[in-house]
């Protein structure tokens, strides 16, 4: 519904994002990002991926009709689609056949170090207590974070705990020791990238 609108016989009928972008937007060729399509349930009565069949096919996209105003035809063929997923096996084959697939590998150690430094800078800028700490994360601390197993997703929460530990120590630098302390007190968080697709929640 968020993409192609809701039919008129529903009292909450409204146009979808595609209609809004093409009618009210500034360009005829917007970029739409569909994040983690593999997490959209295919067992639902109306699988969310179904909305993409018409939109990803150039010929049918040229005659796109939003569900809230079926009498209006729009050319949605110039939209650029970016679809992300963790597991291709969870995406219907007809959808995959309409896409060009690119594999993005996990970050290297050097990239993880850079990510840790970036997360620290963002955290320092966003938090009121951020000014207490130096502008850059010590390299040893960044390396300690980079060497942790799993994805980089839990890094922000762990770094926040490490900052709290450094704050309590009245230190102006977040040291590797603070990360180790944060690991001891942090509640174990599941690494979503390591979980098998299709498991139970």
Q: What's the quick description here?
A:
It contains 8 helices and 2 strands, in the order H-E-H-H-E-H-H-H-H-H. The chain has 201 residues and is mainly α.
For the termini, the CA-CA separation is 25 Å
Shape: elongated
Task: Please estimate the helix content.
Answer: 25-40%
What's the total helix number?
Answer: 8
Question: Architecture of the largest domain, according to CATH?
Answer: 3-Layer(aba) Sandwich
Structure in words:
The radius of gyration is 23 Å and the shape is elongated. It is mainly alpha-helical and 201 residues long. It has helices at residues 17-24, 50-56, 58-61, 93-96, 109-126, 139-146, 155-168, 176-185; strands at residues 31-34, 80-83. Residues 189-201 have low confidence and may be disordered. The protein starts with 16 loop residues before the first helix and ends in a 16-residue tail after the last helix. It is 36% helix and 4% strand. It folds into 2 domains: 17-96, Rossmann fold, CATH 3.40.50; 109-185, Orthogonal Bundle (Helicase, Ruva Protein, domain 3), CATH 1.10.8.
Main attributes of the structure:
201 residues, mainly alpha, Rossmann fold, Helicase, Ruva Protein, domain 3, two-stranded parallel ribbon, 8 helices, 2 strands, 4% strand, elongated
List the helices and strands and how they pair.
Blueprint (H helix, E strand, L loop, with lengths): L16 H8 L6 E4 L15 H7 L1 H4 L18 E4 L9 H4 L12 H18 L12 H8 L8 H14 L7 H10 L16
Parallel strand pairs: 1-2
Helix pairs in contact: 5-6, 5-7, 6-8, 7-8
